[in-house]
Amino acid sequence: MADKPHMNLAVIGHIDHGKSTLVGRLMYETGAIPQHVIDKFREEAKEKGKESFAFAWVMDSLKEERERGITIDIAHKRFDTDKYYFTIVDCPGHRDFVKNMITGASQADAAILVVAATDGVMAQTKEHVFLSRTLGINQLIIAVNKMDATDYSEDKYNQVKKDVSELLGMVGFKAADVPFIPTSAFEGDNVSKNSSNTPWYNGPTILECLNSLKLPESPDDLPLRVPVQDAYTISGIGTVPVGRVETGVMKKGQMVTFMPSGASGEVKSIEMHHEEAPEARPGDNIGWNVRGVGKADVRRGDVCGESKNPPTVADEFTGQVVVLQHPSAVTIGYTPVFHCHTTQTACTLMSIDKKLDPKSGQVKEENPTFIKAGDAAIITVKPTRPMVIEPVKEIPQLGRFAIRDMGMTIAAGMCMSVKEKK
Amino acid sequence: MGDVAATIKIMPDGVERDLEEIKAKVADVLPEGSELFGTVEEPIAFGLKAIKATVLVGDLEGGTEPVEEAIATIEGVESVQVEEVGRPV
Asked: B87 contacts in A (CB within 8 Å)?
């Protein structure tokens, strides 16, 4: 089981379209929920005279279980298919949680978009599709959910499929390559087994689609990047930065450079879980010690890379952003805080280069004077102090950012290109 | 809108810092509407340990930010990082 490749799966969609129920169903069908929890629930449901098997309730029982102290890791959900093991990247309803999707420990490799057949495309459906594109999630699976509530109407399914396809086309997904599955997460139709309720559908199930996902490029093969979370002075050791390896492999004896400071040296030792390690790979939380690098040379937000391919410090960079919420209009000169890897850096909007038309994905306006909530745009920004950021095409883990101001997540985006600071 | 659970990594300002003291204060500083679910210690490197705290926050405006800011005010806390958010199971 440990040998299966891992993927992070976001489950996105409008509120109440059945995201949690689908996650619950997937965990149940793949054996990630203990049988006794299910049994207990079945009994309760019978007593209460509920005719249907509501997964939200199963999840509640599971929550109770967890509360009895088995683990505190209640935010973490995972399940296995034949081919992969998946970690769910949850997407709470409020936009302010988008920041956590970008700066959190796991960035989504693929997404299931849940659209209720009863409702069709809604505001958050659009927003999440746009956001997934902006965050570089290129593999989508569409669950046309709540089919039970439409009496498994093929017409309804086709209508939703048509509407969602149009939406996907707008933001540059090839709808023809994206699988659509009529589901009822509630009843379990077409999740792990083809359902007799939908005789008109003979495509794959959700689990089959999950097995057909392509693994993203392994972050091991990318250049070494370890954003510094904190730096410590430890007696007998010296300066110890700590952080999570995002890409590449760090080895003992390797020459590394911290940017933007430029401090360089040889990796003397690496530790994780208090044990010395000869190397560290993506996902590892490490502390490491570099010969000749003092505490004044390293601070939070710096990025460590191999000296022959050091992290890129931006004088300016261009990004594609989607504005999630803003009380008025975003204009040139605006200087909110960009959250990117472990850095939080104020950056000034130098130009709004293009406004993108959500209806066609094409450029709607060159050099608009402002953008507002709901708009997507290409912008050029200048960090107010040196900051490491990488084009998302080269190192996706260091190319995504959230823009915050006034206690809100204003926008999410990805770095398209960097003008290097000399 | 239900609860959201956030797994938050809290780093102390040094190896000598008493983590129990920090843990004891987390519940007190949390803003209204959020609730501490539990904490564990996680060894990092060279004697340094992180506190992993699970905090239930509402699916509300501001997201995890008010909670992060509150924990950052505790004496001896060097940094606060949200590792994962999700509906609690």
From this structure: 20, 23, 59, 90, 92
